[in-house]
Amino acid sequence: MKQQPTTIVHPIEPTYDEQSRILILGSFPSVKTREMKYFYGHPQNRFWKVVAALYKEDVPQTVEERHLFLLRNHIAVWDSIHQCSIVGSSDSTIKDVVPNDLTPILTTASIEAIYCNGNKSGEMYKKYIEPITGRAAVILPSTSPANAAWSLDRLIEAWSVIL
Domain segments of the chain: what residues? Predict the structure, then answer.
């Protein structure tokens, strides 16, 4: 039996402060991330390994360590989507999108560049958010475990543009 999509409102507040200089947007939190209540909570997602390697720090493990890592390195993190219908964690099932309003981040922090973690985030940003902000985003390869074609080393190399 085919699983029906569930309409979900984004359950996690953005991470940023006035010192944030780059903004990284995912698409929408996975089931594991929603359970953890913090970004990139799936143990197989390589986001934390990638950014830790780039900033030459240990991989943060706890929600608090991850939060402090982002702020210390002037990174804001949120997602392109505020609400959608989704089956499980599958980006390919996302429908009925309501985009996130980036105004609070963009008016508080001096964001120098916006990056999208994966094609779905980039697609949503380009369709719904870029027309409002007038700011282009760079689409980076997804750190999701679904993007198995990209090795950790290749991801780190591609993501080095954020530095």
Answer: 6-162
